């Protein structure tokens, strides 16, 4: 089956499943609802500790929190492991619709090392993440500028401040959690579905009068029969070595009108709307308008050129011809480093296929934020499968350049970009491992990645390359002269560096607003969900990359400069430079990263992302320019 046909079948299957699954009463994997009767146990699971200041996640039990009798790790997909998720059970177990007041979890005595770690996590503003029925824990916060409630993922480990007239800042741990579980009750039965999971953390230095009797101890600071249990006015629990900390919690259940299908709306609206939708739509309209203007100018200019060239009747007129027709004997001459160009084009086609298929499935709802790690897992698997297209594209172009060693070009396609990415990833992972963070990828996962690379991706690249090399070579529409034509001196505005840098501005302008949301979701730990809008921006990116490259390529050929191969790739690919500069601007204005390792991680991953963006946009521009040159030179009469 040919690759385009495979893509069409995958998209058709996705549409069929999306339509048929709800109608038949089935739910997509990972998103099926759970029904609970009154008194049914609800197991709260704990996830990683996260901080926007360090970007280094840690496991929940790396701090001296209460532990269950046996710690059980939940099964995680590849994307969750790469994200640093470590989901485990906890001692917090509720009974459905049965509120509890002032429940003791445990009493812990922290040593000097544990106290130091707690203070460091509080200083770096780490947040504790919990999960109940696949819903992340949120903290409701009243906004100061408006009468509305915002939600923050997870609660802070503790707080830092002055207390009781002390001039020194002290550290206080949040050891009392007041949970609120919202549920939607079925009208026809007593079953309920969980639609909300909130918490208000407090720091309370608990006291008890009698001897310690485990979880049945009567606390004088927390009366389960009082209407108001714990307030922030109580004496807070300071973090000190060799001090006892008593962990407690409340849980109440609230009936909610929110239906199970809409329970994620709260989490998807957590992003602060610093950029309004109006400005986003306005920017899109500007980009579309510019694209339309560029397309109209190109069509009218080309139509006039082709008509003029085809009306040349006399030999004298033909000898006086100028412009892009004059270089027809050199325009399809293979460029320098043609092998590397073939490799980059093949890799870019692989990226394009991966993004297209992944976004189609995301738009259909298969990769919603409720399916943790699903997006990253899908991208990795689709990338591996798209190795078939990478090998096919690179070998087809390589054969057009009269190349004969197809195995050599295949190996370069299979190892160049993945090899660079793996080296960067390995170095960054070593830094994370050195910090003893849960974000470090385990050896087994690293082995699985290498197995996907060597066991599936590389063979598929070879299969695609073999199929592409077997097909007849693409013939240029005009013959190439044996002796290269001398390129005349170019005007300053046609300098390669100048045109390449100018060419990357428009593609970057098409995506920089969406880039803000993507960076926010990655580095500020917020949910990204507007895949429909992302798909629209991706389409606009393709159009702008193609049009700006075609326009500048046309001007270059009119100046009798026929070395367009690499310049067409670099013209749209230069948008990656602006992406990296924007990432540096975002780092300095939006993030609070101060540690060296965290900064290296940020710029390391953004360098890798910019490199991938260069390969993608460069390939789009090259393919558009390749199609354009073949079209115009096959449309004129050349003797």
Write the layout of secondary structure elements.
Blueprint: H1 3-23, E1 41-50, H2 78-83, E2 88-95, E3 100-110, H3 112-123, E4 127-132, E5 135-136, E6 138-142, E7 149-153, E8 155-156, E9 158-161, E10 170-173, E11 176-185, E12 192-202, E13 243-255, H4 265-268, H5 277-310, H6 315-319, H7 338-363, H8 374-385, H9 387-400, H10 406-434, H11 443-470, H12 496-503, H13 505-523, H14 531-558, H15 565-573, H16 575-589, H17 596-633
Parallel strand pairs: 11-13
Antiparallel strand pairs: 1-2, 1-4, 3-13, 4-5, 4-8, 6-7, 9-10, 11-12
Structure, described:
The chain has 639 residues and is an alpha+beta fold. The protein has two domains: 33-268, no CATH class; 326-478 and 527-633, no CATH class. The protein has 17 helices and 13 strands. The strands form four sheets. Strands 1, 2, 4, 5 and 8 form a five-stranded antiparallel beta sheet that branches. The protein has a four-stranded mixed beta sheet with strand order 3-13-11-12. It has a two-stranded antiparallel ribbon with strand order 6-7. The longest helix has 38 residues, at 596-633. Residues 1-30 and 313-321 have low confidence and may be disordered. Residues 1-25 form the signal peptide. It holds the Pfam family EMP70. Belongs to the nonaspanin (TM9SF) (TC 9.A.2) family.
């Amino acid at each position: 089956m040919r690759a385009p046909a495979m893509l069409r079948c995958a998209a058709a299957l996705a549409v069929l499943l999306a339509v048929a699954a709800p109608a038949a009463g089935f739910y997509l994997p990972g998103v099926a609802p759970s029904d609970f009767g009154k008194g049914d146990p609800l197991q709260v699971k704990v996830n990683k500790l996260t901080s926007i200041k360090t970007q280094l996640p840690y496991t929940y039990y790396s701090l001296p929190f209460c532990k269950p009798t046996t710690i059980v790790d939940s099964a995680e997909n590849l994307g969750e492991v790469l994200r640093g998720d470590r989901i485990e059970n906890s001692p917090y177990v509720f009974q459905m619709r049965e509120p509890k007041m002032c429940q003791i979890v445990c009493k812990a005595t922290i040593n000097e090392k544990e106290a130091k770690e707690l203070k460091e996590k509080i200083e770096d503003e780490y947040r504790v993440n919990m999960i109940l029925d696949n819903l992340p824990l949120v903290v409701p916060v009243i906004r100061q500028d408006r009468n509305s409630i915002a939600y923050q993922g997870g609660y802070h480990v503790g707080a830092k401040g002055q207390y009781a007239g002390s001039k020194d800042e002290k550290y206080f741990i949040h050891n009392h959690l007041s949970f609120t579980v919202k549920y939607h009750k079925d009208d026809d039965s007593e079953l309920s579905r969980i639609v909300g999971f909130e918490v208000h953390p407090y720091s309370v230095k608990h006291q008890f009068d009698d001897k310690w009797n485990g979880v049945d101890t009567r606390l004088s600071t927390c009366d389960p029969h009082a209407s108001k249990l714990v307030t922030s006015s109580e004496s807070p629990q300071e973090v000190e070595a060799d001090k006892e900390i008593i962990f407690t919690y409340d849980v109440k259940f609230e009936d909610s009108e929110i239906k199970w299908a809409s329970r994620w709306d709260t989490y998807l609206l957590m992003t602060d709307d610093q950029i309004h939708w109006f400005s986003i739509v306005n920017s899109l309209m500007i980009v579309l308008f510019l694209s339309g203007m560029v397309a109209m100018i190109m069509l009218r200019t080309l139509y006039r050129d082709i008509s003029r060239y085809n009306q040349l009747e006399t030999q004298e007129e033909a000898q006086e011809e100028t412009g892009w027709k004059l270089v027809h004997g050199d325009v399809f001459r293979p460029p320098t480093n043609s092998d590397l160009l073939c490799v980059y084009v093949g890799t870019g086609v692989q990226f394009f296929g991966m993004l297209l298929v992944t976004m189609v499935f995301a738009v259909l709802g298969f990769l919603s934020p409720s399916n943790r790690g699903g997006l990253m897992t899908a991208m990795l698997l689709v990338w591996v499968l798209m190795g078939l297209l990478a090998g096919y594209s690179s070998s087809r172009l390589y054969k057009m350049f009269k190349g004969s060693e197809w195995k050599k070009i295949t190996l370069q396609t299979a190892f160049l970009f993945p090899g660079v990415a793996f080296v960067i990833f390995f170095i960054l992972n070593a830094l994370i491992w050195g910090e003893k963070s849960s974000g470090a990828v385990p050896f087994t996962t690293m082995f699985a990645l290498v197995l996907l690379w060597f066991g599936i991706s590389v063979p598929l690249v070879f299969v695609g390359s073999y199929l592409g090399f077997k097909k007849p070579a693409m013939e240029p529409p005009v013959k190439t002269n044996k002796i290269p034509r001398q390129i005349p001196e170019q005007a300053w505005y046609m300098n390669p560096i100048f045109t390449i840098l100018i060419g990357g501005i428009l593609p970057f302008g098409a995506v920089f607003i969406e880039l803000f949301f993507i960076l926010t979701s990655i580095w500020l730990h917020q949910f990204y969900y507007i895949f429909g809008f992302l798909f629209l921006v991706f389409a606009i990116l393709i159009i702008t990359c193609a049009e700006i490259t075609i326009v500048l390529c046309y001007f270059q050929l009119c100046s009798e400069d026929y070395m367009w191969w690499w310049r067409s790739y670099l013209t749209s690919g230069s948008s990656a430079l602006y992406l990296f500069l924007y990432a540096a601007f975002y780092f300095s204005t939006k993030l609070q990263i101060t540690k060296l390792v965290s900064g290296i991680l940020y710029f390391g991953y953004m360098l890798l992302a910019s490199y991938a963006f260069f390969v993608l946009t460069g390939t789009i521009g090259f393919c558009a320019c390749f199609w354009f040159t073949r079209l115009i030179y096959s449309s004129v009469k050349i003797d």
